[in-house]
Structure to design on (225 residues):
């Protein structure tokens, strides 16, 4: 797999529910991939053959997305600036869900209990474990690792992104071995933003807004000469 194919496959959906997003597809002279958050466009001649998108409506829509440059801008962002923004997010202890399965103490793991009413006795499914005899508990367990805190956002001019989105963007630039990207379309804060990454183009959808300023980290772009 070359770097372009690698980048395309990195932005496909994993859920069967959106089966058309599970593999890159061709429309005219470009190959695209999307996972619902990103839409990547790579010139067809850079990659192996991918099947043509058969859905006419989808085809038209995807082409239109990249043509919607109503307020054309041309600004440059260094990948190192994106990394600096991520580095401003505080580190916290990583914790993972630890699943613990114990026997049910109410029914002594049998799954049933006796109910008594006057002289009548009846066996019923244990209401605590619902007849399984087992109790499943999930608790958070700290690992040795530090990870960046959740819930932080990064703003790029007027568009706001979840920090995970910027991390994915950095990852794509690393796959493509590019150290700066160009912002080529940014209209309204709630509209898609288009980057040029070498010969590729990438669309990202921002989030609408963030309630608390303290979770927001700014990146400023510079006009490209
Ligand atoms: Zn039980």
């Amino acid at each position: 797999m070359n770097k372009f194919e690698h980048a395309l496959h990195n932005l496909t959906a994993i859920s069967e529910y959106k089966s058309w997003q599970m593999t890159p597809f061709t429309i005219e002279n470009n190959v695209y991939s999307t996972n619902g958050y990103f839409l990547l466009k790579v010139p067809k001649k850079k990659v192996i053959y991918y099947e043509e998108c058969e859905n006419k409506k989808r085809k038209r829509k995807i082409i239109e997305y990249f043509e919607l440059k109503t307020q054309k801008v041309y600004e440059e962002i260094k990948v190192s600036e994106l990394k600096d923004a991520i580095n401003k997010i505080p580190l916290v202890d990583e914790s993972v869900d630890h699943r613990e399965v114990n026997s049910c103490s109410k029914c002594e793991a049998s799954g049933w209990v006796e109910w008594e009413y006057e002289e009548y006795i009846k066996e019923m499914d244990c209401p605590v474990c619902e007849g399984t005899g087992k109790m499943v508990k999930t608790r958070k367990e700290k690992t040795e690792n530090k990870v960046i805190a959740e819930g932080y956002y990064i703003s790029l001019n007027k568009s706001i992104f979840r920090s995970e989105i910027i991390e994915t963007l950095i990852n794509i630039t690393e796959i493509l071995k590019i150290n700066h990207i160009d912002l080529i379309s940014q209209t309204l804060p709630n509209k898609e933003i288009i980057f040029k990454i070498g010969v590729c183009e990438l669309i990202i959808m921002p989030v609408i807004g963030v309630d608390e300023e303290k979770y927001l980290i700014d990146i400023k772009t510079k006009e490209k000469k």
